[in-house]
Automatic annotation (TrEMBL):
This is Uncharacterized protein. It comes from Cuerna arida. It comes from the Eukaryota.
């Protein structure tokens, strides 16, 4: 395996995590939790941002039916996964699952027609 490594993890996130741990230890002694909570929030936002960017880059790298159908199979098997929202061509967020599928199909396979 890859030793538990994920492609979105960066040295900046690792450094931020170390700072969070240090602030946690300091807060336990001093009982001043504000600094720790602020840094933890910053860290969690950075992790979410990194994951989102990694997913976006992955989706942009998909080429052809084979890659895209593999993703569809994975998402279809996992009932807890959801597409969330995608950004439409005019910058609007698309939430409806059918509209998301149409957007993905038109983006990756221009001119294709989805069958119901």
């Amino acid at each position: 395996g890859n030793g538990g490594r994920v492609n979105w993890w960066t040295s900046e996130l690792a450094n931020l995590k170390k700072k969070v741990r240090a602030h946690f230890k300091r807060a336990k002694r001093s009982r001043n939790w504000d600094s720790y909570h602020n840094l933890l929030t910053k860290y969690n936002l950075a992790v979410r941002r990194a994951k989102r960017l990694s997913w976006k880059n992955f989706c942009n790298s998909l080429e052809g039916v084979k890659d895209t159908s593999r993703i569809y199979k994975v998402l279809a098997k996992d009932k807890s996964s959801s597409l969330g929202a995608l950004e439409g061509p005019n910058g609007e967020l698309v939430h409806n699952p059918q509209d998301i599928l149409e957007l993905m199909a038109n983006t990756h396979f221009p001119g294709c027609v989805l069958q119901q």
